[in-house]
Amino acid sequence: MAQAPDGYHLYRVTDSNGDDQFDKVELLHEWPSGAGEHGAHGIVKGPDDHLYIVCGNFTGVPEDVSFASPHKNYAEDR
After folding, report:
1. Structure pTM?
2. Which is more confidently placed, 1 or 22?
3. How many whole angstroms separate alpha carbon 69 and alpha carbon 53?
4. CA 23 and chain centroid, separation
5. Which among 32, 35, 39, 42 counts the fewest CB atoms within 10 Å?
6. Rounded distance, CA 63 to CA 74, Å?
């Protein structure tokens, strides 16, 4: 999770030529309103070897959330 030219989203950065410098940035997933104190920050590897993004309560719900997800109709509870 980082701020880059496309905004604050999930990116993969790689060193494509082996010089110990990141030189390739690939946007993996967009997170609406993902920055800030209560945004999308933590990346955690689960017991199933999948990566999970830990998001705070000010992070917008992405458009591609599964229809079956309990967060599809999420609303801020302030």
Report:
1. 0.67
2. 22
3. 15
4. 20
5. 42
6. 12
Gap between the Cα atoms of 68 and 77, Å rounded:
21
pLDDT in tens, 24-65: 999 988 877 767 777 777 889 999 999 888 887 777 777 787
E strands, the chain, are 2-4, 7-14, 24-30, 40-45, 51-55
The residues near 55 (Cβ < 8 Å, ≥ 6 apart) are 31, 34, 39, 40, 41
Which residues, 6 or more positions from 15, have their beta carbon under 8 angstroms from its beta carbon?
Answer: 21, 22, 23, 24
Q: CA quadruple 8, 57, 44, 47: dihedral positive or negative?
A: negative
